[in-house]
Design brief:
The chain has 104 residues and is an alpha+beta fold. The protein has helices spanning 25-39, 54-70, 74-87, and strands spanning 4-9, 12-18, 42-44, 47-49, 93-96.
Amino acid sequence: MSDILTIVMNGESQVEYDRNKPLAGPQRDFLDKMDAGMDAGIVLGEVEIKSPSALQRAQFVALQLVSAIRTSDEQRTAAMLAYLANRIPELKQALAQHRGQVKA
């Protein structure tokens, strides 16, 4: 069984996360802070969700991940990828389709 999480956008592998590499304490703390921030609510599309479920949190983070990949924000990409890999251990691959251009 693979411990790799792969993010595929428009049919091409973009990034991978190896769950066998442990997170350092500050990284784990950051993921906890992300959860605490989402406890206050999130916006998915145009819908405000006051108490997001684990699935809604994952969708929110996945959207943030796609945005980070598109803008080449490596730190944010790493954080969002770590969140998905650690909070959803059964997730092996996430697929995204991007149709537009990144606006500068």
